[in-house]
Amino acid sequence: MDTAIYHALAQQDDPNRQNRQPQQQQQQALPSGHAPQGIYQQRVIPPQQPGYGYPPPGPNPYGAPMPSTTPLQFQNPYAPPTQLYGAPQAPSQQQEGSSGIGGLTAQMGGMGITDGAMGGVGASPGTVSRTAKKKQRHAFHEIDQAPSAPVASNPPFSPAASQFPGQQGQFGSQHGQFGAQPNTFTPGYQQQLTGSQFPVPANPQFVPGIPPTSQAQYNASSSGRDSSSGQVDPNAIPSIPASRDLAQAHYNTNPYATLAQHGPPPTITDYAVIDQGNVSPKFARLTMYTIPTSQEILNQTALPLAWILQPLAKQRSDEAPVPVLDFGEAGPPRCRRCRTYINPFMTFIQGGGKFVCNMCSFPNEVPPEYFSPVDMSGRRLDREQRPELIRGTVEFVVPKEYWSRPLEKGETIEDRALKWVFLIDVSMEACNRGGLTAFVEGIKKALYSDLSEGEEPVKGGIQKLPKGTKIAIVTFDKEIHFYNLNPSLDAAHMMVMPDLEDPFVPLSTGLFIDPYESRSVIESLLDSLPKMFSAIKNPEPALLPTLHAVLGSMEKSGGRIICSLSSLPTWGPGRLFLREDTKLLGTEKEKALFTTEHQSWRKLANKMVDAGVGLDLFLTPHAYIDAATLGYVSSTTGGDVFFYPNFVISRDTPRLVDDMVHVLHRETGYNALMKVRCSNGLQVANYSGNFLQRTVNGDLEFGVIDADKSMSVSFSYDGKLEKKVDAHFQAALLYTTREGERRVRCLNIVAAVSDNGKDVLRLVDQDAVVMLMAKEAATKIVDRPLKEIRGNLTEKAVEILSQYRKNFSAPSPPGQLILPEALKEFALFMLALLKTRGLRGGSVSSDMRTHSMRLLKAMPMADLSTYLYPLIIPIHNLAPTQGFPDQAAEGVLSIPPTLRASYSRIEEGGVYLVDNSQICILWLHAHVSPNLLEDLFGPGITTLQQLDPYMSEIPVVETHLNAQVRNLVQWLSEKRGGRALKLQLARQGMDGAEYEFAGMLVEDRGNDERAYVDWLVHVHKFVQLEVGCF
Ligand SMILES: [Zn+2]
Q: What are the Sec23/Sec24 helical domain coordinates in residue numbering (predicted)?
């Protein structure tokens, strides 16, 4: 490729270019394929200085001027693109010695980008003004200002200095700070806003219910509205994107230390954790890091005291892994009275002869083999060598008494490695619609694809399954088919089980086999399945008997069943019926649709948990499939439901395949039990999540558990806590790893205790509060009317804010809504929660609702935040450095400010990536620039109509923009916890996915709820009533 072009472009403003040139040449790399040492594309072509500002083609269809884009009119660096780039070129390998991100920094330096440029200011004087104007446009996103400096356009909600202190201890040392910068604004009366704020859409192309159709209209409709005039300036109310971006900027270069005197970053943040004795917030987060002494103090805040747990969460590669400790036959030391496991907060007395339990204060004898002398301060001399005494998260290998059954003669740990059963729907619908083809594709990729074969890296990576892993393949329609996959066979032997009343496995050997030894048998079977069954096409699948038969083969071993299903299983015992009844929606009886009273399915779920078996479902339906009943088994056993409604083979196969890869390779355990212990004075009140709990306050049981599952535990008081004594919590998860080892993972946390509600409020974890409320609300949906649950959420939001107003805020005019600093975006999150499919009002199919509700109960912590409030990245005005590794922070991608979820923020001609952790939409404005389309999708693509509506990936094109966008997609994908990311195209006025896009704009009126501003006004009205300000 002609690198001279890029050099010429790069050199014009670079005073250091002579110094850097040699390096630069060495590091020249194409933005094609995946860089071997980094996941992101390297940047090559800086077409011009900041922001591309693709113009919309032709005259502005809306007539009104567009102030926000005017400054950019219209120096399009891409016209004509061919002069710049020449002919497209084949991807080339990255040159040796060009070492990924590290090299990038130098390369970017060589391109005239200074530190200042990272903030968006171009190096060339001629371009500064353009950027500066653009900055103004995004003033509410600015994160690089000194936190204490007021932001003109955003005075009441400027990022407070206290939220992300540069050093630890700031919170502790500045008690008076709280309330010094109250989050206030003055809402007008509701009548002033409702209706006027959001004009009826004039653009017929867009989905109804979404307000203004252009920036111009929005500007016109909202002009002059600010706090001084008694109305609400939308820019002046708390912004989730701004707060996320601010936190990310801090944690790009700072780790979170778990004994820091401030709360953890928002769950969505990409950050590294240093375990100082408290559990990493990736595994567990308290709703508050100062615990009230009594229920009365807690009630003053109206906040829940709870712990959100995700015990097997994925860690970052630069974090210390969880230590695994083996105490041999004796097992880990535990309190004799309350059975708490040894942890960093137990104290040693009598020269090290006894340890005092941090939960119940019982003095235990130290077992002789665990004895160590202590120093003057009571610290064991061997403390630093003992991870269980210094780390918040440890894992103990446990002896036989913790096992569900002892090893049999000749059995080894390896024989206990997780067993997988692929249960494949081969009935008519699966054959016809492609669910079968996609599923076998997924199995093959998950088992056999690896990076050495030139495959693209898939999230989580593909590696061999642990030694000893066995798999089985079973297919079903009206009959059940088992396969002998013995490696010595030329081809798999099929055995049919037609008896659905009392099915059994008609094979003594060859059902569970080593997937690598039998690779050729398995691959040829999988390849032949779609053809084989397309000749049969039984219309009605029989699922319950199939699950019973498979469970029979796993009763002793436990394991994980991954089952595909394309239509309602209407055959044989336990057959399901079309239960959906739209007349019931919105009535008292509606809740029956969200769960199952089908006793045989409920019994099956319990039996599976008993056996340490979990069920994952891959549902690819075109009609009602009774997700309520099917998903009941998955959620009770700790499994997952992957739901691809209206499955389209070309669009959804890549996503399904990657989901399957993820399922097989994420951290997984089985046969699990969990128990949470807490300090005397507190007690466990309630658990929420996807698990089996047989008795109230009994242990949680999971057939399987994995990295993506979270649950909550809330606490109540059964006494009082001592002010000077810390409060302690420990969660212990007993499980069998997928390698077959029986272990207990312990999560420990300590928190200060205070009788001052202000102290409590200062260290509230907003995300944890939101997660708790989401989980508890989603749990109630099966036994309370939806309307009541929604009402309770609103009431709770009002209660929290009015209690704050009553008890803790500084005096202020009654017209002001005051939000606690730590809960600035809480009201917006509550609104977003009310707009989820699981909890929104209005008509939602019961399949969709139950699926969403179970997601809310168990989804990964980081995903929930995005699920409620999406990440929106504009890509039509990226600065040249954005979407490439950041110069200032190694390994960090430079991300443009994320956008507020409102149509008012959408620009004419704009293109946006919108991700809510379940689907990722590439939304394109109808008047998008043809040049942009060509740069993004390849030569000759200049209109939206030319795009493949089912495209799931950005094609590789040799342009700067293309590399940027692919990097951003990769970044979004890395951020996700539980679901693979594939793009879905939403071209304005053309694609059904626009409806999804509209649903994600949670600040707008829609989803049967108010717009954000109206919501705040609504909440504020009730707060005023509560406080008695009227
Ligand atoms: Zn104890």
A: 765-865
